[in-house]
Amino acid sequence: MSSPQSDRHVVVVGASLAGTRAVEGLRALGHAGHITLIGAEAELPYDRPPLSKDLLKSDWSDDAVAGFRLTSAEALTAAGVELKLGVAATGLDTVARVVRLADGTSVGYDVLIIATGAIARPSPWRPESGVFQLRTLADSRAIAEQLRTGAPLVVVGGGFIGTEIAAAAVGFGCSVTVVDPVAEPMARIVGPDVAGSLVGLHERHGAQARFGVGVTDIRGKLGALEVLLDDGSTIDTAAAVVGIGSIPCIDWLEGSGLTLGNGVLTDGMLRAVGADDVFAIGDVARWPHPGRGVEVRAEHWTNASDQARYVATALTGGVSEPYGSTDYVWSDQYDWKVHTIGWRDPNGSSALVRDLARDGKTAVVHSNGAGEPTGVVTVNWVRGLNLARRLLAAGDPAERIVAELEQLA
Ligand SMILES: Cc1cc2nc3c(=O)[nH]c(=O)nc-3n(C[C@H](O)[C@H](O)[C@H](O)COP(=O)(O)OP(=O)(O)OC[C@H]3O[C@@H](n4cnc5c(N)ncnc54)[C@H](O)[C@@H]3O)c2cc1C
Questions:
Q1: Ligand 1 centroid vs 251 CA: distance in angstroms?
Q2: Strands laid side by side in the 336-342 sheet
């Protein structure tokens, strides 16, 4: 259904998952006005999860890379989308409704969708060479080349992306050490039971886990690096990948009047606070999460995609409810598939269903302090995930979710 204002010019800044899905959604839902998609990268939009998974292990042939593009120039042209790649937005005037670009030009808008995502948090340690970070296709290609040397690697950061890189490195025969100041780095998301199993999984595959120990410096150069730890020890390595989180791309919005902080603050309908007809979606957006009762900036594929669809629907006259997140995340760790829906309340409790070592699969049902279910983590159990997702959405109590999972074959 198209709205009475479907002739408005929509400008989308950020040509990745959220931006691409937003323009596709607008056209699919009948938006007839002009659409401009602006991206800082010279690349056609591509998917990021494969950068630490399949692509890292691929042969980097043109076909392998093409398989992870989110769209094609032809498809965007056919959809009537004006594409401006390789040019970053450098400023925003919300009164004149103009986006300024790095090439000195500017683009006027009726509606602006901010989808500039995030970058890898820069490494505080900068030796002459040998430190890699992962956010872009070029980063993934550079890391893949390094892994193929089979030389020792230190991964700083034991989150999902760091451990996926570690798993790929082990596959190339690298001697791998993962360092993280937190004792069980993934516990915040998956809870201590699954986090402990994941540490064991990496060790069984030959990666060393140095958890609960922080890095104080990285010195030397590619091929001869020293990673200094806060327990006084040093790891000699050829290269290091630093994966210590990400920061939202909001520099270009300074002085625009939008409410910036950890991302672009929006209301519950993803409208940027501080300007009319401006939305923020994907990794750059911070919005009031209805279930959690706090402002959240998610860095997850499904959220970016869902928010794009939500705003496209809103702009074509189709939503009245605030955005409700599915909070779905997945990770591949060696041959294990980890899935999470919802969230884990650190003040709540968790119930474990099935024994990973014995059954090869498990689920953890998280509840908040009041005993209400907030999320579920599964390992190698897609049927369990689907069942839990349905029961969570139906508002079933935690005991029922646990009981139904226990009965599932
Ligand atoms: C290695 C890796 C693995 C991942 N694996 C998973 C996974 O397994 N599961 C999962 O749920 N999620 C995963 N994610 C997260 C997921 O990819 C992100 O949530 C998703 O890419 C967010 O999309 P986005 O469009 O909001 O932002 P981004 O993908 O960050 O894209 C933002 C785009 O905006 C551009 N941009 C930035 N500033 C400007 C500017 N000023 N002007 C113009 N353009 C600009 C950037 O160049 C970029 O192309 C992974 C991410 C990475 C990096």
A1: 16
A2: 328-333, 336-342, 373-379, 362-367, 349-353
